[in-house]
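Issue 218. Parser rejects a valid record. Input:
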Amino acid sequence: MLERQTELITARGRELQAQTDLNRAIANYRRATGETLQVYNISVNGGGPEQGRRQAASPGVSQR
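Output the parser choked on:
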């Protein structure tokens, strides 16, 4: 019986590793094809990298 339990635990470990490998492969594929944002319904609107940035205020100074 102990041998069967060990085999079951080993099989479950292999199954989890296979699922992890699959998820990584899917993520790598989406990254390579540029689909990652689309898959999660994320859209980026606006201009360049400066848009949306705010200058940090000095301590004790409020921003308007």
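Fixed in the parser; the record now loads. Residues 2-33 form the longest helix (32 residues).
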